[in-house]
Write a structure and sequence with these properties.
By secondary structure, this protein is α/β, with parallel strands linked by helices. The protein contains twelve helices and 15 strands. The structure holds (2S)-amino(hydroxy)ethanoic acid and manganese (II) ion (2 copies).
Length: about 425
């Protein structure tokens, strides 16, 4: 396996131009993006990505979860491909780079290979996973989870958004229901390049994150049932107040996470009050608690503590409490050989680097269940992500893509 020469680099301007072009699709309201999965803007973004892949000479396969696989042939058709993937879908108030950088850097690797006339033994497949964010249809990393065999396709098809639309119907509606069996593809290796979405690389002034692990996660969906009543005329001692129980549970989640420092997080991003009227105490309150930590025992201890204390809070107020785990993955250890190639590539290219554990979840977490996988990260300004103000520099974007090029070429084996 020969490593590429240290001067082998991608075209940073072309990568940046593609990022800015994609960012025009599904614009947000504050300079970022709202290109949620299986919406018309997701459809538009897919079409632009396909056009670019056609121009780069790639052939497309689409599976029954709508994931796009764009192949550059290798010299040995029997050799399993090296996959480079991430996601084009965004949060409702997402940034321009979360996921998109990894997909378009994969395209840039292929474009650069074309420019340089590089052939590899193993094919290269650039991948756009459907519904990585889990914002519209929970859980996150849905398509890669079905691909890895940890989520059933039926369960995925049945997931509903806040308007009651199902994943399966929406996939058909935008015309991206593919014919490939999900998970039938076998991978030689999987690489994902992503912004850090945290403050460490910028604070440590490192250009490259060598991602050794990813923290584990539980998404616990709570449904609290109180009694609808007038907020004005109902005496305090007669209330069955699901909103009050929710508030106490939020405070308790904060308390559990702070009690497990360092290296644990817990919080809530989404709440649904019904009937959600200013002067009606809610009948139901639905929210998802998101807890994460790199330590599996700690993760499960936090889950147990939160569910136990939430039940006690609801008992005290007289509110019914139901909990469903709607998302989960154990902490992930990435493939040491691939991690080593990422580190060696950063060193060969002269880029500062450090080991990092990914705070956010990624499709690589599920890919790691079925193939040797790893990630590369670049810094992001102020560690900010899942915010329209998410920002990186063209230099950061290019450096990580150079490392991706080198690690992928070493793994796919250059042939002449
Ligand atoms: O939730 C996550 O970590 C990812 O952004 N889907
Ligand atoms: Mn992402
Ligand atoms: Mn994200």
């Amino acid at each position: 396996m020969t490593a590429p020469g240290e001067n082998l680099k991608i075209n940073g301007d072309r990568l940046w131009d593609s990022l800015m072009e994609m960012a025009k699709i599904g614009p947000g309201v504050a300079g970022g993006n709202n290109r949620q999965t299986l919406t018309d803007s997701d459809k538009e973004g897919r079409e632009l990505f396909k056009r670019w892949c056609d121009e780069a000479g790639l052939t497309m396969g689409v599976d029954q979860m709508g994931t796009m696989f764009m192949t550059r042939a290798g010299t040995d058709p029997s050799a399993l491909p090296v996959y480079i993937g991430s996601h084009l879908d965004t949060q409702p108030t997402g940034g321009k780079y979360d996921g998109v950088l990894g997909v378009l850097a994969g395209l840039e690797v292929v474009r650069s290979m074309n420019d340089l006339g590089i052939q590899t033994k193993h094919p290269i497949v650039v991948t756009n996973w459907t519904n990585e964010e889990g914002a519209r249809f929970a859980p996150a990393m849905l398509a890669s989870g079905v691909f890895a065999g940890v989520i059933s396709q039926d369960h995925a098809y049945g997931r509903k958004d806040q308007d009651g639309k199902s994943f399966g119907d929406e996939l058909k509606r935008i015309g991206w229901l593919g014919d490939e069996e999900v998970g039938a593809r076998k991978m030689h290796a999987y690489f994902e390049y992503h912004i850090e979405q945290g403050p460490i690389l910028e604070a440590e002034e490192k250009q490259i994150g060598v991602v050794t692990h990813c923290q584990g996660l539980w998404w616990l969906e709570f449904t609290l049932t109180g009694r609808e009543a007038h907020t004005g005329s109902t005496p305090m001692n007669m209330r069955v107040n699901a909103g009050l129980a929710m508030a106490r549970i939020f405070e308790m989640v904060q308390d559990v996470a702070m009690g497990e420092q360092p290296g644990a997080v817990g919080g809530v991003g989404q709440v649904k009050f019904s009937p959600n009227s200013r002067n009606v105490l809610p009948s139901t309150v639905i929210f998802t608690v998101d807890i994460r930590t790199p330590d599996l025992a700690k993760l499960n201890r936090m889950r147990g503590e939160i569910e136990k204390r939430a039940a006690a809070i609801c008992d005290e107020i007289g509110v019914k409490c139901a909990v469903e785990a709607i998302g989960h993955f154990d902490p992930v250890t990435f493939d040491p050989t691939l991690v080593g190639r990422v580190r060696a590539a950063a060193e060969r290219l002269g880029y500062s680097h450090m080991n990092v554990i990914s705070g956010a979840g990624h499709d690589a977490c599920w890919a790691a269940k079925v193939a040797p996988s790893t990630m590369i990260m670049c810094p992001c300004v102020g560690g900010l992500s899942h915010n329209e103000a998410e920002e990186i520099s063209p230099e950061w974007a290019a450096a990580g893509a150079d490392v991706l090029l080198h690690a992928v070429l070493e793994t796919a084996e250059i042939v002449g």
